[in-house]
Amino acid sequence: MARFIAWRVAQFPLILAAIYLITFLLAWVAPGSPFDRSERKLPPAVEQSLKRRFHAEHWYGFLAYYPKNVLFNGDFGNSFNYEEFTVNDILRTSLPVSVTLGVCAMVIATFAGVGLGVLAAVRRGGTWDGISLTVALLGVSLPAFVIAAALSAIFCMKLRWLPFGQWGSWRDLLLPSLALSLMPMAYIARLMRVAMMDVLAGDFVRTARAKGLPNRVVIWKHCLRNAFLPVLSYLGPAAAMTLTGSFVVEKVFNIPGLGQHFVNSVLNRDQTLILGTVMVYSVFLLTFNLLVDIGYALIDPRIELGR
Amino acid sequence: MTTMAIDSTLGRSRCRWPARILRNRRLALGGGFAALMLLVCIATLPWTNAPGSTLYYNNQQSAQARQPPRFGDGPGYWFGTDALGRGMLGRCLIGGAISLLIGATAALISLVLGVTVGLVAGYRGGWVDGLLMRMVDILYGLPYILMVILFKIALEPPLRRIMGENAANLVVLFLAIGLVSWLTMARVVRGQVLSLRTQPFVEAARACGIRERRIFIRHLLPNLAGPIIVYATLTIPSAILQESFLSFLGVGIKAPMPTWGSLASDGLMPALNTIQSRWWMLVFPCTLLALTLLSLNFLGDGLRDLLDTRDSKLET
What we know:
The structure holds 2 protein chains of 2 kinds.
Chain A: H1 2-29, H2 44-53, H3 59-73, H4 87-122, H5 127-141, H6 144-158, H7 171-200, H8 203-210, H9 215-227, H10 229-243, H11 247-253, H12 259-268, H13 271-299
Chain B: H1 2-6, H2 8-14, H3 17-43, H4 45-48, H5 62-65, H6 88-124, H7 126-141, H8 144-163, H9 165-180, H10 183-197, H11 200-207, H12 212-249, H13 260-272, H14 280-307, H15 310-315
Helix pairs in contact in B: 3-6, 3-14, 6-7, 6-9, 6-10, 6-12, 6-13, 8-9, 10-12, 11-12, 12-13, 12-14, 13-14
């Protein structure tokens, strides 16, 4: 186990370097740059000096300057688009916001999703199955911007229970995390239901029931553990995605998170910020995927890691 | 998994009659509605794509375009008109056809690519698994919006020369969304294979000297059918949703052509307008979108229950 973890962690720098290079390549090849926007055409001399200041004249100039700084100082450089901010500043202010929101959303999604999925599997074909599935499926049947806008329109505009478009107290966290959690919740509930139905048909379930164990114990102690594997493999990417912010939810609820920078940096061809956000996301993703693989082995000892 | 083969009869006898009917009804309802929607959207294409027809998706008339969006204008305008005076009905119909096509393409790509990669990686293990899964990790690590924009930029000019502007825009959208949606499938299939691989029946098959491809197809795939079907059906709605997200950003489908997603995102502001809400611009595309995606999800569930016959097959 320890060897497996060490081996995977040792691979991280290589994977991250590959992601950095590929992302840079993609971002560099994409036509357009923050320095030649059509709405304010810069004189060539100004553009040249701007590019020189940002080390963005040639691809080799960029690669000679930025990766070294990232590696040794953890410094992603200045944002091409928001010129007076460094990428590190932007990440430092927006990442905690997104992580707070994302953790809340993932907690809601995991507990509600597992609950709904188990309920649906146990009461297969019954009323509860229908109810839990319909509730969960609404999350994946409407675009996030419609759900978020509808939630804010109902709870902030009509009922005036919650303030709108603010960020600071726990009350501002409720609606965005609910909106953010609906999609993963629906996925988790569905995966849980399918896996649970498979497990419930197993021999050991009958044995456990025959021993006279209460249904509650059979389901939550014996079956949940076995049925959790598919959910676990989804949790890795879902957590990485959710914790690094969502453009739609942040835009609708006016939250200063990282999700907006993900999209805006690409739309602006802000190469340093693209690289910064992608690297943050990649680190999250690699970590969570490693945790998921460890989780596999912890839940099902038959799975041999690293083989 | 083999253990389930033995007591499948037991599992089946537990299912009561009403439950089975409900399950089949769900399948029938879901599949029926999705098929109906697809049929209606495609069958009306001759009108929605014919300039001059009231249903034409880009049916702009200067007299109407100068007026605010209206609702209740009579035949051909049952869903109201949009900001340019075009009938929402025709736009919703052709938008549905495009949205469903996007979903189907994405599901197909993720089925072929994702299952193959997941099976091979999970079964072979070792360096093959490492290589394939790190590749998936790297592709996951790249933001999907960057990939989509780059796909569009890279693929659109050559395709435009071959098939014209609108078709090129569509094909690029199909490819871009399809090529980013197989990754989850690969990971899920691999996870399942990883736990199946150690099961006695796979070892028995291997010990019998059965060739690898046969083990894949006859022994592993039937056991994977549940998760694969669930994920493939989940891919269709999620691809349609991804397109709506792209439309929300303004990098989705090109302007006069609609999809349900682009119609919904265009209708969001007019509908939320507190002074005078143009609700029809949001409600109709959204309802169609939600109902179709809901029924596709129900279809996946029903199919899953229907295909859960592997136990009886093993028994006989």
